[in-house]
Every structure is written in C-alpha cells, then in structure tokens.
TrEMBL record:
Keywords: Membrane, Transmembrane, Transmembrane helix
Originating species: Mycobacterium bourgelatii
The keyword Transmembrane helix appears for this protein: yes
UniProt superkingdom: Bacteria
Name listed for the protein in its UniProt record: Twin-arginine translocation pathway signal
Transmembrane segment boundaries: 47-68
Localization annotation: Membrane
Length: 203
C-alpha cells in the first residue's frame, strides 16, 4: 500500500468521524434546553391525553343514559308494566259501569279516581245530567264484571287495552237481572306514576 493510498484512507476516516460528530451536534437529544423544559413538555403531553380520556368517559356516560331513558322503551314496557296497565283498565272499567241509586256520590267518586283529561270532564257532565237522574228515577243499578283483557298497544306513557265485560242491570221496571256482554277499548296515560283512563270507546 502506497503512502498516498494510506493518506486517502486516513482522510476518509477523519471525514466520517467529523460527519458523525456533526450529526450528533444536530441530534434533538443533544440540543441545549433550559433546565426543566423537557419535564414541562412531558407534563403537558400527559395532561392532554388525561383530559381527553375524561371527556370521553363523560360522553359515553351521557350517551348511555340517553339511550336507556329515551331509546330503550322496553325498559318501561316489560311484562310487569303490561299487567299493571291491564289491571288499571279492568278496575277503571268496573268503576265506570257499576253504580247504585243508594250510593251514587260514592260510586261516581270511585270512578273519577281512575280518569283523567277531557274524559274526566265528560264523565262528570254525563253522570250529573244523564246517569244520576235516571238511576234515581228508575232505581237503576248496574254491576260490571271484567271477563278478559288484552293489551292492544303499550308505550312508555300510554296504552290501549281491550276489555271484555259483562254487565248486570236491574231497575224498578225490570227487577229481574239482565246480563249484557260488551267489549271496550280503554285508552290510558301514565300520569304521576298511575295509569289513568283518557278514552273509553265501546266496540
């Protein structure tokens, strides 16, 4: 190997080392920073993800609540609710169709406890102007018995129930009991936790 060749190789080695040194000078880890700069930067990096995670958790919680309360009506229309609706329709029907001339005020008050809305207003007017005078004049007495119910519609705050009822009637002119069978579509609304009748339509 000639002296010239060795000199060229030595020169290349020196250049390479200088290049390496130059790279190290420009390495981000070697860049001079004020004391505490890196710790503050890392602290910010930790805080931002934590805030995002907290917001995500809150968003998921709110979305879950909205879904359960508004978009999962089955939670409020389970078989237990259906039984409560059918029972309310049955009891209300019996109260509406049962009265005696000796206890009209009590019978009407019992029926009113099952009603709401415009139907309650209609019932008050109808019993005062039609039912009460006829019951007193003709000694009209009726007793209703529900023989079956079927829930036709069921929503979180409203329902429709088909009620099958037998009604026994006696009067001064017809003292022998007469029995009539009928069916009624009873519409109900949930008001302050109670199912109250808002419509009463014979079918």
């Amino acid at each position: 190997m000639t002296d010239q060749t060795r000199d060229l190789q030595t020169t290349e080695i020196i250049d390479t080392e200088e290049a390496i040194d130059d790279d190290q000078d420009y390495s981000p880890m070697q860049t001079e920073r004020e004391p505490g700069t890196w710790s503050r930067t890392l602290g910010k990096v930790k805080v931002v993800p934590a805030t995002l995670i907290l917001l995500l958790v809150i968003s998921v919680g709110v979305a879950t609540w909205v879904y359960v309360e508004r978009y999962q009506p089955n939670r409020r229309t389970d078989p237990g609710v259906a039984r409560a609706v059918a029972s309310a329709a049955s009891e209300g029907t019996v109260a509406l169709l049962s009265y005696s001339p000796e206890s009209l005020d009590k019978d009407f008050a019992t029926a009113r406890a099952h009603l709401s809305g415009n139907f309650l207003s209609y019932y008050n007017q109808f019993t005062e102007q039609i039912v009460a005078p006829a019951a007193k004049q003709k000694a009209l007495k009726t007793t209703a018995h529900v023989v079956g119910t079927a829930v036709s519609e069921l929503h979180p705050d409203s329902a429709v129930v088909l009620v099958y009822v037998n009604q026994i009637t006696t009067s001064k002119d017809n003292p022998d009991p007469s029995v009539s069978s009928s069916s009624v579509l009873v519409s109900l609304s949930r008001i302050d936790g109670d199912w109250l009748i808002t419509k009463f339509d014979p079918v």
